[in-house]
Amino acid sequence: MKSWVTGGVLMVAMLSIATVGCGTRPSSVKAAVKDEKDRKKAPDFALKDSDGKTVKLSDYKGKIVLLNFWATWCGPCKIEIPWFVEFEQTYKDRGFAVLGVSMDEDGWDAVKPYLAAHKINYRILLGDDITGELYGGVESLPTTFLIDREGKVASVHIGLVGKADYENEIKHLVAGDGIVPALIVGAGR
Fold first, then answer.
1. How far, in Å, are 3, 17, 21, 22, 139 from residue 6 at the CA level?
2. In this structure, is the dihedral angle defined by the CA atoms of residues 182, 185, 186 and 189, taken in order, positive or negative?
3. pTM, rounded to two decimals
4. Of 57, 81, 141, 180, which one is least surrounded by beta carbons within 10 A?
5. pLDDT, tens digit (0-9, with 9 covering 90-100), for 119-147
């Protein structure tokens, strides 16, 4: 009986991490695209990609960027990554890009095999604590920022968020910051 109870508690804890996030901050699953007047400039950074090239966020000015802080060991991150692969494919011709910032402590030794195994089609950068601090101290993974064409933060998600939530926000930004089409507003998960 005791092992059954312990196993149940362990299962609940694991499910909580999987549905919330890998970190110490509470999940913020409710987020929407902010009004243009309420958006703040996204901090620029210079990080290396898997080819050793320096990439800056400012290189993507004029594009909508989904900036995702993640790690190979993070369960919720593993759920989101296939969605981001799909979004990159679907919206890349409409001025959209996904940038993944790995926060793995083992660096490229952990990340490169993961990239190969999961056929990630978007650019992955190796992050650090300084970059995390620029974005308010990334303490929970995944943490994702949607950045508009002007380089301003349009929405922030801490923890696992539904695929439809991301897609609605991407469609909103791709269409422009005018009225969101009814088709998008009523979309389910």
1. 5, 17, 22, 21, 28
2. positive
3. 0.78
4. 180
5. 999 999 999 999 999 999 898 999 999 99
Tokens of 71: 């790690």
Which of the given ranges, 31-40, 48-57, 178-187, has the highest pLDDT on average?
48-57
Tokens of 6: 């312990």
Each domain of the chain, given as residue ranges in start order, spans: 2-185
Distance separating alpha carbons of residues 107 and 71, to the nearest angstrom: 10
Rounded Cα gap, residues 176 and 130, in angstroms? 32
Residues 6+ apart with CB under 8 A from 95: 62, 63, 64, 149, 174
2-185 CATH fold = Glutaredoxin (3.40.30)
